[in-house]
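Subject: sequence -> structure tokens, single chain

Hey, anyone have a minute? Need the predicted structure for the following. Not urgent.
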Amino acid sequence: MQECIFCKIVRREIPADVVYEDDDILAFKDINPVAPVHILLIPKKHVATFFDIAAEDQPVFGKIQAVAAQVAKEQGLEEKGFRLVANCLEGAGQVVFHIHYHLVGGRELTWPPG
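Reply:
Had a minute. Here:
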């Protein structure tokens, strides 16, 4: 049983504003948004980093990208676009060690982010 915050959200031990859920994936609003739309997409199975993805996990990670597009449409981002970001390890900014994607949009996004 994993004790990370995202596993607790999956188990409904911590509340979240869920915008999408299926057997494999949970998507919910970030509690500290950096844009008008900021949604986290996570696999329900605990996988700490991209280096920990097993062969049997690969289909879920492809599915997350399709779900991200669906959620972005539902959030009204189809016309202006969105950014989908995932950080891997501390040096890249990963704080919660359960793979998660940030779907960000609803304002002009610059590159590099900052």
